[in-house]
């Protein structure tokens, strides 16, 4: 904890971390808010899963482009412009009386115009701390973002149960525009200069570390959508949000306990073993809320440490001119994984059962572990002191 306390005392760190946390908070609500609202309107989990899949596919498409455009047009301008477009589409989803096909199309617009908060903040982080302290800052970021995934699902299900699913979508839209403008107004964001990459679009993927991290991110984040949508398919609405939040509670505890202790190139694989074990254990009692909460909690212990390493590894492996696009591709991989898993889970719930959909989480996590083991020899080590080896 001492490393984290020292980190937030550095100039600008607390302000940037807090504002980006608010700006990214809607992502903790979005998946469940869209699923609950669209399923309520269309009475179909298939439509809800497709809508969520199209939204995340939109983010996947736009991520690398927005990463490069921040260098061409400025980070603040891109953040505010995309936030305005995305927020308008979210309001239309909540309020416009349109059929399921149009809701799916609007979700695609939301994804395509998703504010590139994560790419911007991860490009800013190396300007706030020495390179040999980046590991600690990325671990702190991964730990704190779990607040989004603890509060977000619970808040969304509570609002949907007592005020209606549409209200949750509206509140999400308001938080997004306020948070994006707040983050974009920071002097570090306004003054951020991202050198234009001299390489062709997508060339950064020829870096094996970036490619491996992109694949792993897609598989791991895909497992999250299987947990979220699958849990809603198994349990009642009031209970599901609390059960889902157990994954993030475990994650934030695991992050603060282990996230800064990544001393070997096998650290990522060890964290992912914990995730796989937690996901697999849910099948002992896949319809019992308490047991599901325990299983998700155990899995969560490895999530934040793994996500923190994803960011630190890419940041340590590339020059600043390439990191924004690289993080864009990593985000693309994550969103493709989320989209694929969400669509698959929605179909399985409608055609088989909610319990069957939980298998997808374990399969995706196991795939992440396999890639981590295969790429361990080329992965840079980010030590607990933040030193790069």
Pick out its properties.
globular, mainly alpha, 389 residues, Growth Hormone, Chain: A
CATH architecture: Up-down Bundle
Sheet having the most strands: none
Return residue spans where pLDDT drops below 50 for at least 5 consecutive residues: 384-389
Given the structure, what is the number of helices?
18
Number of domains: 1
Helix content: over 70%
What is the CATH topology classification name?
Growth Hormone, Chain: A
User: What is the H/E order?
Assistant: HHHHHHHHHHHHHHHHHH
CATH fourth-tier homologous superfamily: MFS general substrate transporter like domains
Question: What number is the mean pLDDT?
Answer: 85
Termini separation (Å)? Answer: 23 Å
- What's the count of strands? 0
Describe the structure.
The chain is mostly helical and 389 residues long. The protein has 18 helices and no strands. The protein has helices at residues 2-8, 13-24, 26-42, 45-73, 75-95, 100-112, 117-128, 134-162, 165-184, 187-190, 208-234, 237-258, 267-281, 289-300, 303-317, 320-351, 354-357, 359-375. The longest helix is centred in the C-terminal third of the chain and has 32 residues, at 320-351.
């Amino acid at each position: 904890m001492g490393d984290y306390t020292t980190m937030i005392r550095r100039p600008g760190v607390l302000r940037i971390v807090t504002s980006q946390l608010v700006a990214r908070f809607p992502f903790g609500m979005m998946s469940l808010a869209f699923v609950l609202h669209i399923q309520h309107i269309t009475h179909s989990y298939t439509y809800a899963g497709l809508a969520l899949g199209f939204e995340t596919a939109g983010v996947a498409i736009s991520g690398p482009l927005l990463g490069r455009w921040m260098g061409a047009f400025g980070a603040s301008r891109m953040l505010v412009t995309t936030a305005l477009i995305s927020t308008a589409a979210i309001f239309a989803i909540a309020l416009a009386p349109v059929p399921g096909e149009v809701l799916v199309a609007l979700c695609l617009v939301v994804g395509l115009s998703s504010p590139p908060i994560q790419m911007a903040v991860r490009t800013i982080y190396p300007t706030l701390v020495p390179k040999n302290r980046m590991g600690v800052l990325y671990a702190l970021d991964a730990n704190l973002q779990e607040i989004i995934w603890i509060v977000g699902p619970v808040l969304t299900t509570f609002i949907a149960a007592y005020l209606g699913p549409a209200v949750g979508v509206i509140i999400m839209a308001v938080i997004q525009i306020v948070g994006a403008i707040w983050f974009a107004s920071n002097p570090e964001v306004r003054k951020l200069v991202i050198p234009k990459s001299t390489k062709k679009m997508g060339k950064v993927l020829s870096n094996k570390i970036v490619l491996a991290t992109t694949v792993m991110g897609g598989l791991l984040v895909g497992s999250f959508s299987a947990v979220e949508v699958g849990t809603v398919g198994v349990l009642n609405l009031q209970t599901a949000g609390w059960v889902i939040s157990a994954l993030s509670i475990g994650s934030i505890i695991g992050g603060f306990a282990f996230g800064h202790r990544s001393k070997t190139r096998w650290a990522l694989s060890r964290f992912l073993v914990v995730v796989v074990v937690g996901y697999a254990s849910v099948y002992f009692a896949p319809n019992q809320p308490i047991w599901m909460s325990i299983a998700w909690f155990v899995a969560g212990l490895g999530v934040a440490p793994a996500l923190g390493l994803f960011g630190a590894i890419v940041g340590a492996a590339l020059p600043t001119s390439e990191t924004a696009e690289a993080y864009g591709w990593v985000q693309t991989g994550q969103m493709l994984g989320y989209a694929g898993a969400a669509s698959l889970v929605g179909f399985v719930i409608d055609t088989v059962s909610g319990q069957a959909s939980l298998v997808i989480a374990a399969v995706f996590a196991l795939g992440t572990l396999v890639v981590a083991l295969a790429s361990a020899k080329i992965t840079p080590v980010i030590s607990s002191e933040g030193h790069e080896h």
